[in-house]
Design goal:
heterodimer; A: 250 residues; alpha/beta; Rossmann fold; six-stranded mixed β-sheet; four-stranded antiparallel β-sheet; B: alpha/beta; Transcription Regulator spoIIAA; five-stranded mixed β-sheet; 12 helices; 68% helix
């Protein structure tokens, strides 16, 4: 494992009911990078992310965070590790019975000894970071899809995570909102130095944010290559990767 | 789009046989105008045994999807029987649509009729396996709930107190009107039937005993539980099912928050606390219903009825009813939450989850009622 590597997958197979969707995944994600998991629909991008976020046990292989195996430790140790991660879901996955403020405050109330006033200040700060200052009293049903995703980012950042996972951040957004979200991800990376793992097949997003990417192939059920997506677009050895990154234009 | 009034109907004629034939398409090809079916045209083509097919569309008016769908079937037949096609006569746009429709090869999933039929014994076996898995899931869930209750007892369980009080209000106070109506009517029915039967023996006053004991020992709790299964259990399942579909439960897990603690415990505690109170209230309403029937039909004085009820119903009967109600409340909460947590991630799955929660709750309420009756008898309550 190289010095900058924060996450490492070793011979990883993920899937459901014993059937592997992706197998033999070996890769490293460097600390502070934006790493994109890309590939066609149904290739297993989100399944891989579920394994990396503790929602789905792998069928084989290991996931290492800072050299520590994620799935080979006791559940309590894994729960502690999970608290050092943040996850933004495709639809935001905000708790619908709570306001935005309560959504962001919950992790702080659960895992810190901060008083209500400090929690309130931190929540205001996190919401302001994602451009939702003053919206804390609104419920998820009262805001747009783009705002829900931003609020999801604020909640994912509540505990200052070391790794942030994003599941299809630009899905369902208009081009302008998608671009603003991409810019937010890049800004957060530069200002906080957080490692970001982003699952997406949106080419504009991939080129705008990725430092490095892995291509998961749906037909072969494994990764084809990793690298800078701009370089892969022009020089990837596999024609499928080039075609994907050029929207099918060879 | 409907066919224009007075426009010629769609027609497909096969002209010429042997080596070369022409398919003459004429009229207004609209879905609303009942154009010729593709299978009829293909059958005609098969009978003609042509080796080359051309098209004549000089008499063709407007067209919609009915024309390309016919031509797709004709093209498939020609390809399968080595008939050479000359598409030159087709209108502009049709060729492009046909190319688009054939761009992706047909999926290889077998048609429904071709799937292997499962024999009755195998089907029974599968159902037994599914039932044992479902029982396993139920026990595992109950185990998780018991562990969460253990953490609660040690002060280590985490859920939002505000949410607990909100659920208490929803399952308790807001259920009062429906519980009042149903239990009053059940008491009234019991009172009416009891009066009819006891009048034969000149023992009308004992209708108070009948209604009082039945309602306090069992029916008050049962009626409350069944109302709550339909009202609250279904609501729990729908809430948690929607949360599952929206990845809200995943979001809890990835923050290291146990969904059983956070979502199930407040619902369980609220129902265990509120069901006995509602059952007590249902007892009162049931007795009032019985008294009303006895007064109107049997002419029994309400004061006399009340005195007779007090003499017949003892504290032990109330204890039975209250314990039963607490157990039924737990059953309703666990059934609703279990089905909600097991829900799939689409709207249909959430609907199925709600139905399943009500069925599961009512089934287990009846089983619990039977077990509790035997237990109370065994301990002499």
């Amino acid at each position: 494992m190289s010095a900058r590597a924060q996450i490492r997958l070793e011979g990883l197979s993920v899937g459901y009911g014993g059937r592997a969707v992706q197998r033999d995944l070996d890769l490293e994600i460097r600390r502070g990078d934006i790493f994109v998991i890309m590939g066609g629909s149904g290739c297993g991008k989100s399944t891989l992310m579920r394994a990396m976020t503790g929602l789905l046990a792998p069928l084989a292989g290991r996931i290492l965070f800072d050299g520590e195996s994620f799935w080979e430790v006791l559940p309590a140790a894994r729960a502690r590790r999970i608290r050092r991660h943040g996850v933004m879901y495709q639809g935001g996955a905000l708790w619908s019975s709570m306001t935005l403020e309560e959504n962001v405050a919950l992790p702080l109330q659960q895992y810190t000894d901060l008083g209500p006033r400090q929690v309130r200040e931190l929540v205001d700060y996190k919401l302001a970071l994602v451009g939702l200052g003053g919206c804390g009293a609104l419920y998820p049903a009262e805001i747009s899809g783009g705002m829900r995703k931003r609020a999801g980012v604020a909640r994912a950042m509540a505990l200052d995570p070391e790794v942030l996972f994003f599941d299809e951040p630009s899905a369902g957004l208009d081009p302008l909102s998608a671009r603003l979200l991409d810019e937010l991800i890049v800004e957060l990376k530069h200002s906080l130095g957080t490692t970001m793992v982003v699952v997406t097949h949106d080419l504009a997003s991939i080129f705008a944010i990725a430092d490095e990417a892995v291509f998961l192939d749906v037909e072969r059920g494994t990764m084809l290559t990793t690298g800078d997506p701009r370089w892969l677009r022009d020089h990837a050895a596999d024609a499928r990767v080039r075609a994907f990154l050029r929207r099918g234009v060879a | 789009m409907s066919a224009r009034a007075g426009s010629p109907p769609a027609r497909a004629e096969l002209v010429g046989t042997g080596a070369r034939a022409v398919l003459r398409l004429s009229g207004e090809w609209r879905l609303a105008g009942a154009p010729p079916a593709a299978e009829v045209v293909v059958a005609r083509l098969a009978r003609a045994q042509v080796s080359e097919l051309a098209f004549d569309t000089t008499g063709l008016g407007g067209w919609d999807s009915s024309l390309p769908s016919l031509l797709l079937a004709v093209r498939a037949h020609c390809r399968a029987h080595d008939i050479e096609l000359a598409p030159a006569g087709l209108p502009e746009g049709v060729g492009a649509l046909l190319t688009l429709a054939e761009a992706v090869p047909l999926q290889s999933a077998p048609p429904i009729d071709a799937r292997p039929r499962v024999r009755p014994l195998a089907r029974l076996g599968r159902r037994v396996i599914d039932a044992s898995r479902a029982s396993g899931a139920l026990f595992a869930f109950v185990g998780e709930v018991v562990l969460a209750l253990g953490r609660l007892a040690r002060g280590r369980a985490r859920f939002r107190r505000a949410e607990f009080w909100l659920i208490v209000q929803q399952v308790g106070a807001e259920a009062l009107p429906i519980v009042s109506l149903v239990s009053f009517l059940v008491g009234l029915i019991l009172g009416y039937i009891g009066d009819q039967q006891l009048a034969r023996f000149g023992a009308r006053i004992y209708v108070a005993d009948l209604v009082g004991l039945a309602v306090v020992m069992q029916i008050g709790a049962l009626v409350t539980a069944i109302v709550l299964a339909g009202r609250t259990g279904a609501a729990f399942a729908a809430q948690l099912g929607s949360m599952q579909a929206n990845e809200e439960i995943d979001a809890l897990r990835t923050l290291g928050i146990d969904p059983v603690e956070f979502l199930v415990l407040p619902r369980l505690l609220a129902l265990i606390a509120m069901t006995p109170l509602l059952a007590l209230y249902a007892d009162l309403m049931g007795i009032l219903g019985g008294a009303f029937a006895a007064a109107v039909v049997g002419g029994i004085n309400p004061t006399e009825y009340a005195v007779q009820t007090v003499q017949a119903v003892g504290w032990n009967h109330f204890v039975q009813g209250l314990i039963s109600a607490g157990v039924y409340g737990a059953v309703v909460a666990v059934s609703g939450c279990l089905r909600g947590m097991q829900s799939g991630r689409d709207a249909a799955a959430v609907g199925a989850t709600t139905t399943s929660a009500v069925v599961t709750a009512i089934l287990h309420i009846v089983i619990a009622a039977a077990v509790l009756t035997v237990l109370f008898d065994a301990v002499g309550l």
